[in-house]
Amino acid sequence: MPINENLKFLPVHVAVLTVSDTRDLAADKSGQILAERITAAGHRLADRRIVRDDAEAIAAILREWIADAEVDVVISTGGTGVTGRDVTPEAFQRVLDKEIPGFGELFRMLSYQKIGTSTIQSRALGGVAGGTYLFALPGSSGAVKDGWDDILRFQLDSRHQPCNLVELMPRLLEHLPQDH
Prior knowledge:
Elements: E1 13-19, H1 29-40, E2 44-51, H2 55-67, E3 73-77, H3 88-95, E4 98-99, H4 101-115, E5 125-129, E6 132-137, H5 141-155
Parallel strand pairs: 1-2, 1-3, 3-6
Antiparallel strand pairs: 4-5, 5-6
């Protein structure tokens, strides 16, 4: 996955949301890993929060960040499994304009190479809402590293060739009426 060093790097503003009933900032290893990797890549950490496993509470924070011009991308960690408490994908579906099916598919393909068939338990997903990219990763530190290191690091780098998500950002709101 080539990076064209002749192109200008354009930092994006990324918010990190940890979905957990048990973690606080001090115990949020996956959120911390994301925050560190985001800033190490040259991007700006726009916000970082923890929210309980509650679909409406998650959706409320997503709506807030979607409406915030200082947030270009939201990456969540946690709540993507199949248990009764795992409601992150349902919360995302409440706000998404468009899903990016390839994100979840690629995540599970990469994950399969590391954890085998256990990857079917992940409902990782990506999408767009109100011109903001949204990505939901599982809560394990390994999954967060895989999602960032193997996918998002490249797609959020404006120099990544042959294409990347950053170059599409100015066009994400084309379908909306002009008064937005």
